[in-house]
């Protein structure tokens, strides 16, 4: 199985970055919209930890 990232921001990475491959696509099972990578730090601060309502 291959893990494929999309839209990431890579800074000072010494790891191997493969640019072409095939991978599992979750769109075939459910719909979703990716958040822009630049928004992730704020989303984590906002939505991680205890929440007053789960939204479920």
Structure description:
- The chain has a domain at 24-48.
- The termini are far apart.
- It is low in regular secondary structure and 56 residues long.
- The model has no long low-confidence stretch (mean pLDDT 77).
- It is 14% helix and 0% strand.
| Net shape | flat
Given the helix and strand composition, which structural class is it? little secondary structure
Quote the beta fraction: under 5%
Please trace the helix and strand order, writing H or E for each element.
H
Residues in helix, %: 10-25%
Number of helices: 1
Number of strands: 0
Radius of gyration over C-alpha positions, nearest whole angstrom:
15 Å
Low-pLDDT stretches: none
Q: Mean of the pLDDT scores?
A: 77
**Biggest sheet layout:** none
Query: Alpha-carbon distance between the termini?
Result: 31 Å
InterPro entries: Pectin_lyas_fold
Record the SSE blueprint:
Blueprint: H1 40-47
What are the key terms here?
little secondary structure, 56 residues, single chain
Nutshell version of this structure?
Residues 1-21 are annotated as: Disordered. By secondary structure, the chain is low in regular secondary structure. 14% of the residues lie in helices and 0% in strands.
